[in-house]
Amino acid sequence: MSGGGAWQGNIKARLYERVRARGFDSLTAFADARPTVPLYALADELGDDDVAAVQVLSGLLAEAEQSKRVTRFVRDVLVRLLSQSLPNGWPAVLDDENLFKVAKALGSWSAYTPETHKERARLARAALRANPPPAGWRPLGPDDDLLRTILPDEEA
């Protein structure tokens, strides 16, 4: 978890220096190599106490906006949050405990979704509630077939 050092100095330069030191030319390439790793763990990998998850999120969004791949970014964030909250995949039974885990992942996802994609994310959440994925479903990346069905690549 990041400490106060995450907000010192040139944050963007630090992120890209760390990414390049690991052999990647972009933050997206670094994250894509770890498609189910939660944002906080990506931040920890880049800098134990001087990189925050929100900085990774912000950098990924900036790159997605530049490459006009924001919808893919939105799916990517959902995959990471589902992996964090539902490490064994979609629950077979949505009892109170599992319902909370799903709600936590989807609620965080909503908060992290850029304004341009809020409505599309709302529709995707509604689709997941109306037709829950099969038990054990665990998207392994943003290009998962089910995710592409409920949130296709059309840019907003």
Structure notes:
- The longest helix is centred in the middle third of the chain and has 17 residues.
- Helix content is 59%, strand content 0%.
- The model has no long low-confidence stretch (mean pLDDT 92).
- The chain has 2 domains: 64 residues, no CATH class; 81 residues.
- The protein is mainly α and 156 residues long.
- Helix 4 packs antiparallel against helix 5 and helix 5 packs antiparallel against helix 6.
- The N and C termini lie far apart (33 Å).
- It has 8 helices and no strands.
Outline:
This protein has 156 residues and is mainly α. Helix content is 59%, strand content 0%. It comes from Corallococcus aberystwythensis.
State the share of residues found in helices, binned by percent: 55-70%
Secondary-structure element order, N to C: HHHHHHHH
Using the alpha-carbon principal axes, give the shape: globular
Indicate how many domains the architecture comprises: 2
Total of DSSP H or I helical runs spanning 4+ residues: 8
Number of strands: 0
Poorly predicted runs: none
Main sheet attributes: strand count, strand direction, barrel closure = none
Oligomer classification? single chain
Rg on CA atoms, Å? 16 Å
Percent strand = under 5%
Alpha-carbon distance between the termini? 33 Å
Report mean pLDDT, rounded to a whole number: 92
Based on secondary structure, the structural category is mainly alpha
Write the layout of secondary structure elements.
Blueprint: H1 11-21, H2 27-32, H3 39-46, H4 53-67, H5 70-85, H6 96-112, H7 118-130, H8 145-150
